[in-house]
Design goal:
mainly alpha, 0% strand, transmembrane helix, zinc ion transmembrane transporter activity, ZIP
């Protein structure tokens, strides 16, 4: 299935780039900013409209807030990998097990709504793909550029973390097939909260000395523009 292939490819490609270009922290940061502009646009133009037009009779805003809170809890495990904060921590601060659990849960939940995604290669799917690339870049840089890894073959725990992260969203998608389709708006609301938190933190992080960062603004605009183009040209008639 093309969806599963793209999900896995986005992680593998990001890790590969991180392994060989991971020392260029500016590149990782720029990729994150670009993806954040893309992600917040997908969230506001694709995810939230589906959530708030669903005829559930429930206040789905509570589930959006739950997604925000869930992501805050997960960041206690990942130490802000999603925001590019890996360089603030040494290997002793981030336990591979905690990192694995945090990233797996994060990606697993994002994959659940794909089970009932009727739009094929939807903007929601591309949002996850664009989101996976910079996170995987950072993951690859952290796991394979450490002193104990760079001079030897990749260790089993590092490869296991990459494999689990790559398979997390497809596994969530598989589990989603067993849920009642009427629950789709609730899962989308939770993921929307996760997307909103991650993208807003990246975009609105304070600039150095609070100066205007034109490159950052340009990258956000580029990410927003790409998402808007995808929204305009995607068939929403289903």
């Amino acid at each position: 299935m093309i969806t599963v292939f793209l999900l896995i490819l986005s992680v593998v490609s990001g890790v590969f780039l991180g392994k060989y270009f991971g020392k260029k922290e500016k590149l990782a940061k720029n990729l994150l900013i670009l993806s954040a502009g893309f992600l917040i646009t997908i969230c506001l133009n694709e995810v939230f409209p589906q959530v708030y037009t669903a005829e559930t009779g429930a206040s789905l805003g509570i589930f959006v807030i739950a997604g925000v809170l869930l992501q805050m809890i997960l960041e206690a495990l990942t130490k802000g990998f999603e925001h590019g904060h890996f360089h603030h921590h040494s290997e002793h601060n981030i336990l591979p097990a905690a990192l694995m659990v945090g990233l797996f849960i994060h990606a697993f939940i994002e994959g659940i709504p794909l089970a009932n995604d009727e739009h094929g290669l939807s903007p929601y799917l591309w949002g996850i793909v664009f989101h996976n690339l910079p996170i995987s870049f950072i993951l690859g840089a952290f796991l394979f550029n450490r002193k104990d890894e760079s001079r030897s073959a990749p260790s089993y725990p590092s490869l296991m973390i990459v494999a689990l992260f790559a398979l997390a969203s497809p596994m969530g998608m598989l589990l989603g097939n067993y849920f009642d389709p009427d629950l789709q708006p609730y899962f989308l609301a939770i993921v929307g909260g996760i997307f909103l938190h991650i993208s807003s933190v990246i975009i609105f992080e304070s600039n150095k000395n609070h100066n205007i960062d034109w490159l950052k603004i340009g990258l956000v605009i580029l990410g927003v523009s790409l998402a808007l183009l995808m929204h305009l040209f995607h068939d929403h008639s289903h």
